[in-house]
Amino acid sequence: AAVLAAALLAGCTPVAQNGDTVSLPAVVPAPVSIEAGPDAPFRLSSATAVTGEADAAAALSAIVEARTALTLASGDGAGIELRIDARSDAPESYRIAVDEASVTVTGADAAGLFYGVQTLGQLIARDGDEWTVSPVTIEDAPRFAYRGVMLDVARHFHPVETVKAYIDHAASLKFNALHLHLTDDQGWRVHLDSRPELTEKASGTSVGGDPGGFYTKDDYREIVEYADSRHMIVVPEIDMPGHTHAVGLAYPELAEDPSVSDHMREVIRDYGGDEPRAGAPYDGMAVGFSSLKIHDEATYDFVADIFGELAAMTPGPYLHFGGDESLSTTDEDFAEFVGRASEIISDLGKTPVAWHEAGAAVGIADTTVGQYWGFLTPQEGAAEKATAFVDNGAQLILSPADAIYLDMKYPNGPELGLTWANGPTSVERAYSWEPSDVLPGVDDSGILGVEAPLWTETIRTAADIDTMAFPRAAAAAEAAWSPATGASDLRTWASFRQRVGALGPLWTSMGIGFHPSDEIPWV
Ligand code: TNX
């Protein structure tokens, strides 16, 4: 018990290895394999040299400096070698070997090496006055190709610096996609030369009367480049045909008047705010009252302009056209819109992405990726709609709302957040689900990946984002990256909470203002 306690204090996690219980350093998301070596730890000092790939060396030096205040030397000398070995197997995979004399990180590609460096950052431990790296061998590769976080910059606008910080924090957990929810009823957040009035007339406010804002094209490019330097793609979402009240402020001829149902009136009563009115900015939290005009060719000229310009600004393969909660559009009209919007995106040479409701549309482009936002136990036809994407030969991104919606309140947490998705959502619930168990008949071959959305009706600042996302984003990262539940000793809640707890000092040194959840034994 004493050994165990000491191991846990040092940020290690006990696991069975060759029949013995040994202590291993805490890595999140859990790697494919990690074995303790027989050597003494590698000691880090200002004499430690890092050699090899320059970008990876810069990334490692930044982590080491933040964590230990040591500045690594460059050039020859005993130390850390970072290299790419293109002959080694899976994309984004890496190996780490640590002994007393050296640390070697080998990536199959630049992304794999970057992920190896993130893992190495987690292996650094304090030993008295010294900093050491535990002697281990790690082999690691992602389970899913797509590992995303989503940030809603429409309900509350978040400036470029905040987005960059979120990219850094998410990339440390091996996320490789940043989905930006750029437009909604409350605001249009990206300037497009083809339709300049969107940001001129529809970006000024956020939920609750808070200030708005938008990204210039240079801002957007800056985000894309920064994300790329952390091996993340940007997936821009322009939500349509619902969630489009802001479009009507700029181009009234494209939008139907708001259609407010009795249910929306109840929501408005619960959350406060005014009812939506044509021509006035909307700063409440109700959804489902807006729609683009479906039977007007001008709408499709608009869709073509918007996505054409975004396609040229976005190197990643995906353009997301929303498709959620179009509650004031008839099913027939919705299907027609989804078919045409998905074809427009596909004709631009991009892969369309849509929320799962769009799967019901018969004419949807076959290549469209679906994003499932239902519950872990699907309700009311959600599974059928989601499964339709797989039947078309495409894949799904899983964002089960009652597990990894990062905007749900925590139990015993801050006031921030909503509760509609069976909330509050504990860290344990965010963790304890298995992707291949969510949708009947959808196994790994039908799953492109996992994404944790952060809607921002109640989320105003960078500190709010960190609080809601950490530690629960780590649970989503493990679902996206690590072996399936049951395929690894590390894939248990008991192991995860210990490993996450050990990351507290690293996260603090990186400036991640995580929620100190009482479910986690923080070191
Ligand atoms: C549902 S999930 C929405 C968003 C809200 C969110 C709040 C989805 C595709 N749509 O419009 O912001 O709930 O949790």
Automatic annotation (TrEMBL):
- PROSITE patterns, per database record: PROKAR_LIPOPROTEIN
Q: Which InterPro entries match?
A: Beta_hexosaminidase_sua/sub, GH, Glyco_hydro_20_cat, Hex-like_dom2, HEX_bac_N
Answer whether the UniProt record assigns the keyword Electron transport to this protein: no
The Glycoside hydrolase family 20 catalytic domain sits at 144-326, 328-483
Cellular component, GO annotation:
membrane
Q: Which reaction does it catalyse?
A: Hydrolysis of terminal non-reducing N-acetyl-D-hexosamine residues in N-acetyl-beta-D-hexosaminides
UniProt EC number: 3.2.1.52
Q: Return the SUPFAM superfamilies for the record.
A: (Trans)glycosidases, beta-N-acetylhexosaminidase-like domain
EC top class, as a word: hydrolase
Position of the signal peptide: 1-18
The entry's active site is: 325
Which top-rank group of organisms is this from? Bacteria
Signal is among the record's keywords: yes
Please cite one Gene Ontology biological process associated with this protein.
carbohydrate metabolic process
In the record, what terms sit under GO molecular function?
Answer: beta-N-acetylhexosaminidase activity
Which residue intervals define the domain Beta-hexosaminidase bacterial type N-terminal in the entry? 25-141
Q: Which UniProt keywords apply?
A: Glycosidase, Hydrolase, Signal
Q: Which family does it belong to?
A: Belongs to the glycosyl hydrolase 20 family.
Under what name is this protein listed? beta-N-acetylhexosaminidase
Which species? Microbacterium trichothecenolyticum (Aureobacterium trichothecenolyticum)
Q: Recite the lineage of the species.
A: Bacteria, Bacillati, Actinomycetota, Actinomycetes, Micrococcales
